[in-house]
Amino acid sequence: MPSSVPSTPPGTPPSVRRPLLAGAAGNFVEWFDFGVYGFQATVIATAFFPGHDPTAGLLATFGIFAVAFFIRPVGAVVLGRLGDRVGRRATLSLVVLMMSGSTALVGVLPTHASVGTLAPVLLLVLRLVQGFSAGGEYSGASAFVVEYAPRERRGLYASVLSISTNAASLCGLGLAALLTQALGDTAMQSWGWRIPFLLALPLGLVGLYLRLRVDDTPEFLALRRDAEVESAPLKATWHGQRRAIGVVFGVVTFNAVAFYVLGSYWPTYLTSVVGLPRTTALWSSAATYLVLIALVPVFGHLSDRYGRRPLMTYAAGGLTLLAVPAFLLSSVGGFWPAFAGQLLFVSVAGATGPVVTVLLVEMFPTHIRYTASSIGYNLSYLVFGGTAPYVATFLISHTGSKLSPAVYITVIALVSLLVIRFCLPETAPRAVKPAAESADSGAVTVS
Predict the structure, then answer these.
(1) According to its record, how does it sit in the membrane (predicted)?
(2) CA-CA to 120 of 20 to 30 Å: which in 59, 199, 291, 364?
């Protein structure tokens, strides 16, 4: 499995390298912890929702997965406001501590066999804590990383954050595959599923240590030095950024669906619908993430050179055309068709990661950036990201069509494509005219 701390872009100044690594490493911890639940959905369904109907148990498992997203906008408001008032570093340090603590507690929960219905209730409570924490992570980490980056290379530097997110998914999948192969299905369902959750605590302490060792971003420190820190970021966001938040919501929508279908649902699809062995499904997904990690910096660099809109148009248009063929290919059976289908999927969806990261920064002014970007980002993930595995499972169970999740993705991608075409401004420094830029750190007005 890859290192939890991805390499920084070539030529990164030493003064920037440590903050980039701190942001990426903390982000890795956050999404490894949050994603472990989805990687082990079929095992958790057996432990917490036993019964005669495997589909019902899986739906209940993905239902709790989705409920955690309902608290994410609350976390976005509370933690975003904190990030704009006291700083990115302090808020992100709190976030990683909350996530790792709640995730580790999942690893010591009693199962349904021990305490009955209390088990899923406790699981739900901890997932809500995870969701609250996640509401303040990605947007804050995006601001932290990109505010350190040179303006002309923001897309490339933002890829470090996207790489860490995908590396977290890869490590989670790889760990689940290794444990399943080493322990066997019986031991995994009995006690082995707890190991990835328990690893969250030491990983969280490492992430906390790295984040506390760096200064806050130059842009936030400049606000503090000039006494321009926003005292009411939520109010300022509401009065000045509603349209921009709506655009971010529409653009992030297909990124949210693609991310959680690939990471949290596709392994389950290959196991429960296609009929592949669990280890085969996990290794196929892990191999896909290796390719995705290699593609991310390429997409980030291309967004710097050609602009954010062309890359997002490519991704949304590509998913509209290729989602159904990708699922068709994966449903043939066997490792190589499964891998080929996922590879086709990420060849277009992979462009969304680094571009969304930098858009969250460039769409909003510095003094309310954490709050505004967190709200738009997490509302989209609430409505479409967290529900994606549940919707996919529901559609198959009610339509009987293996391709129904792909049709759903196609529709979502088409809607996002229209938003990109008619509403998304170009924000890349090389592509946007200087007159269109505000004086506030490159934020572009959405008219």
Answers:
(1) Multi-pass membrane protein
(2) 199
